[in-house]
Automatic annotation (TrEMBL):
PANTHER family (alphabetical): GLYCOSYLTRANSFERASE, GLYCOSYLTRANSFERASE-RELATED
Full protein name: Glycosyltransferase 61 catalytic domain-containing protein
Source organism of the structure: Linum tenue
Subcellular location: Golgi apparatus membrane
Molecular function in Gene Ontology: pentosyltransferase activity
Length: 302
């Protein structure tokens, strides 16, 4: 039994706070267990139906109550009772780091979790394209957010990537339809995007793929801890591009000597988030960024 409350509605935290730990907790039972949830919403349950079905033989049809996960909140309201000889309350294996497994508490690793996801979502590509063995163009998946932390010169970025020999696929989001997101990510050799929940889909990338995280101004700590460090346990290669002040839309909103630029750490989260997370876009300097794409190509040759 586990909760789908708190930040489960956020794509990154759904994986980091619940799905990874649920895998660690449920996997030893070899699907011979029922899943009981609380604090959830029907849309949250259906969104990850593939995961529930892969972990429990009793979850067969999310739309049929008797064949779905057991929502104990709904059961209580309906006056029904479910009896079990044994109940495990809560999840284990949660590491302090995002998208990670506490190795001291679990026999599983993030490699095992990624293998589980590939099997659950029927993802065929296990290894990224090795260019020394293939003549085809490597595929780069560019996540271009629409509302905030968006690329303002996406066409220029796409043109540069194509000039270097990439097959380019662009998407505006990668979190609403998990199955679609999983397929798109798994087919990519390189995935790039500005810091955001869409980069969580690195869990679906094939082994030896490359992740490029574009780090907006003042967002370094979040970029490192949410995706940079976790990537080390996933058998993917990680590259980071920290933008310069001139590449941030903040230069059009604040004077050069404003505290927004001189001392970002002085802001509390309530002040920090609206400035740097919710109202910052990126105009990528493609000349400065080009070496990062070349490095990604070099990694695919290794």
């Amino acid at each position: 039994m586990f909760s789908l409350g708190a930040y489960f509605g956020h794509y990154l935290h759904a994986f980091s706070d619940v799905l990874v730990s649920l895998f660690v907790t449920a996997r030893p039972f070899d699907r011979r267990l029922h899943l009981l949830v609380t604090d959830g919403h029907h849309l949250q349950v259906t969104k990850f139906s593939t995961v529930w079905q892969a972990l429990s033989r009793y979850v067969r049809n999310i739309s049929v109550q008797s064949e779905s996960v057991v929502d104990i909140d709904t059961v209580q309201q309906g006056g029904k009772a479910h009896c079990f000889s044994r109940v495990m309350v809560g999840l284990k294996g949660r590491d302090e780091k995002e998208l990670s497994i506490n190795s001291s508490e679990s026999q599983y690793t993030m490699k095992d979790f990624r293998h589980f996801l590939r099997s659950a979502y029927s993802l065929d590509k296990t290894t990224a394209t090795h260019l020394r063995d293939h003549d085809g163009a490597p595929r780069i998946l560019i996540i271009s957010r629409e509302k905030t932390r968006a690329f303002t010169n996406l066409e220029e970025i796409v043109t540069t990537a194509r000039e270097l020999g990439f097959e380019v696929v662009t998407v505006t989001e990668l979190d609403s339809n998990v199955s679609r997101s999983a397929r798109l990510a798994n087919r990519a050799d390189v995935m790039m995007g500005i810091h955001g929940a869409g980069l969580t889909n690195m869990v679906f990338l094939p082994e030896d793929a490359v992740v490029i995280q574009v780090v907006p101004f003042a967002v370094d700590w979040f970029a490192t801890n949410y995706f940079g460090e976790p990537s080390k346990g996933m058998e993917v290669r990680y590259l980071e591009y920290k933008i310069e002040r001139e590449e941030s839309s903040l230069v059009k909103q604040y004077p050069p000597d404003d505290v927004v630029f001189t001392d970002p750490s002085s802001f509390r989260w309530e002040e920090f988030s609206p400035i740097y997370m919710l109202n910052q876009n990126v105009t990528l300097n493609v000349t400065r960024f080009r070496p990062v794409l070349l490095e990604a190509l070099e990694l695919l040759h290794q």
